[in-house]
Amino acid sequence: MVLLQIGSMPKSLTMKNTELFAREVLPHIKDMWSEYENRWWPKPLEQRELAGAASAGDA
């Protein structure tokens, strides 16, 4: 988790921080923990869950 905006920081500076982080920092750290499963990242629903949600909407 990164904190690229603090308090009443102007939007332009926040956007600059975000751009610099994405361009200069993220490429160096994005695979740092690639061996760990990210249990919190959203995953597609399985077909049976999709079918159940569709039939629930028909009621």
Q: How would you describe this structure to a colleague?
A:
This protein is mainly α. It is built from two helices and no strands. It has helices spanning 11-29, 47-57. The longest helix has 19 residues, at 11-29. 0% of the residues are buried.
| Helical run tally | 2
Shape: elongated
Order of helices and strands: HH
Intertermini distance: 41 Å
Estimated helix fraction: 40-55%
Count of DSSP strands = 0
Radius of gyration: 19 Å
Oligomer description: single chain
Mean pLDDT: 87
Strand content: under 5%
Low-confidence stretches: none
Largest sheet: none
* SSE-based structural type: mainly alpha
How are the elements arranged and paired?
Blueprint: H1 11-29, H2 47-57
Write a concise synopsis of the structure shown:
The chain has 59 residues and is mainly alpha-helical.
Keywords:
single chain, 2 helices, mainly alpha
